[in-house]
Amino acid sequence: MQVDRYRSLFYQTIQTIQKSNRVLLISHPKPDGDTAGSVLAIAHFLDAINAQGILYCKDLPGAHYEFLPGIQRFTNDVQRILDGQPYDCVIVCDAGDLGYAGVERWLPTLSGAPTIINIDHHRTNTHFGHLNIVVEDAAATAEVVAQLFMTQGITITPEMALCLLTGIMTDTGTFTNPATSSSALETAAALIRVGAPYRLLIQKVVMNRRLNSFRLLADVLQRLEVKQPWGLGVTVMTLEDQERYAVDEESTEGIANFLNSLSHEQAHATLVLKQLPGDRIKGSLRTTREDIDVSAFAKLLGGGGHKKAAGFTIDGQLVQEDGQWRIR
Ligand SMILES: [Mn+2]
Q1: Ligand 1 centre from 176 Cα, in Å?
Q2: Confidence check: pLDDT of 253 > 80
Q3: Domain 211-327 CATH (choose: 3.40.50.620, 3.10.310.30, 3.40.50.10490, 3.40.630.30)
Q4: How far is the CA of 319 from the centre of ligand 1 (A)?
Q5: Which end of the chain is more exposed for a tag (fewer CB within 10 A), N or C?
Q6: C-beta separation of 135 from 105 below 8 A
Q7: CATH homologous superfamily, domain 3-206
Q8: Exposed (0-12), middle (13-18) or buried (19+): which is 194, by Cβ within 10 Å?
Q9: Inter-axis angle of helices 141-151 and 158-171, nearest 10
């Protein structure tokens, strides 16, 4: 990311946060390391300036992220948020719009007419905030938050650094996917320098697969086919798989990233179709090819995301007919 372009926006944002007494921090549903790490780093900063940070996420973070300091502070209790006391600002991290953030319905009813700060890196972001720090070429929202602090002379504590490095590592597939830029690596290095425990995070973020998630992966890989003429590597994950192996969201999401290591000479892009309850199907698209924008495809189906990683949810069932998987 080109930090210089955002300096005045960063300045205004830090001014707004520093003037606030009570701040609502929002992570998107089914939180990943980036949305949770970004929000938690800001929460630690609010602690340092004696402001009250209240953390909301529609889904509470899974056991995967229990190593993040402060993770237990997230609530999904909207009544607790809507307690009638005024908020000075609301900070939404890593969500392209308020619907995706899971707060569209009740956010406008908050008292205090809070300033909405939107920090994100999704190209499909709708700029829903009063202050919009939307950096499409950032590897992670956590990279943006780290730069926000660094350029404004805010001390990044080891706790904040841990949270932010987690966001960068999870969104870059631990520095392997095409979002991994020189600035993402520089930001990560700066976070390690101020105390982020890189080796611990490798254990917690990468080397943490459960036996059942390998078994699920084995079944899903058996079904992988490259569909021509599109050169699209497609596989499916049924509800039965998800029940049999009782794996969490994180493990099923990880499969799309794993498939992305398929040689781009054999497949232009990959797609994991995951059956959801209630006859819905979630598609996760990945590519490593420079000339392919999977977010354009996702958008056609009502979804969104990044050029190299995007997703959508559609109505339908995954059914097997004559050995072929189809959407019905
Ligand atoms: Mn992200």
Answers
A1: 15
A2: no
A3: 3.10.310.30
A4: 32
A5: C
A6: no
A7: inorganic pyrophosphatase (n-terminal core) (3.90.1640.10)
A8: middle
A9: 140
Q: How confident is the model at residue 208 (pLDDT cuts 50, 70, 90)?
A: confident
Distance from Cα 99 to the centre of ligand 1, integer Å: 16
Tell me the CA–centroid distance for residue 177 and ligand 1, in Å: 13
Q: Is the predicted pLDDT of residue 254 greater than 90, yes or no?
A: no
Q: How far is the CA of 165 from the centre of ligand 1 (A)?
A: 12
Number of Cβ within 10 Å of residue 12's Cβ equals: 15
User: From ligand 1's centre to the CA of 135, what distance in Å?
Assistant: 11
Cα 141 to ligand 1 centre (Å)? 5
| Cα–ligand 1 centroid distance for 66 (angstroms) | 19
Angle between helices 158-171 and 182-193 (to 10 degrees): 150
Distance 67 CA to ligand 1 centre (A): 19
**Å from CA of 171 to ligand 1 middle:** 6
Distance from Cα 318 to the centre of ligand 1, integer Å: 28
Distance 34 CA to ligand 1 centre (A): 5
Chain centroid to CA 239: how far? 23
Question: How far is Cα 145 from Cα 40, in angstroms, rounded to an integer?
Answer: 11
How far apart (Å, rounded) are the C-alpha atoms in residues 210 and 246?
11
Domain boundaries, the chain: 3-206, 211-327
Confidence class for position 249, pLDDT limits 50, 70, 90 = confident
